[in-house]
Amino acid sequence: MSLYARAFLAKLIIALTVTAILTYVTGITVIWGTVIALTLTLVTSLAADRPFLLLLGRNITVLVDVALAIPLIWGLTRFITGLFLPISTLAILTLVIVVGEWFFHIYAMDMRLSKDLRLRIKD
Can you give the residue range of the structural domain that contains 53? Predict the structure, then answer.
């Protein structure tokens, strides 16, 4: 499996954990939960991890991930179900995202993935 596929899989596991919490709390269907998970994975990967991980480091990129993820989760849940997520649920989701993304960034920086991205940036 390629490095990017493994990295995407790690991010998808984080997103599916968030989806499981959303499904339990809001009662959305698994299909809509998967849509939210895939959207979350793509947005945080393309808009935060790729451009910022090497430039800003692990911790700042986690904050960027959270800044993108929370409004995305809240907005999609509101759009799909018509429900507002409680602050307590958002806090739990934020904790899951922070822990998951922090470990993902350790993985990405320690593996060849970060070296591969550096080479692509130089080209």
Answer: 3-122
Tokens (6 digits) for 36: 């939210």
- Tally the domains of the chain: 1
**Which residue bears the tokens 């739990």?**
92
CA 2 to chain centre: 19
pLDDT at 2 over 60: yes
* Tokens matching residue 20: 């499981």
**Cα–Cα distance, 40 to 98 (Å, whole number):** 13
3-state secondary structure of 79: helix
Q: For residue 117, give Cα distances in angstroms to 9, 17, 45, 99.
A: 17, 27, 13, 23
Model confidence pLDDT, tens digit, residues 31-64: 888 888 888 888 988 888 888 887 888 889 889 9
**Which amino acid, residue 109?**
M
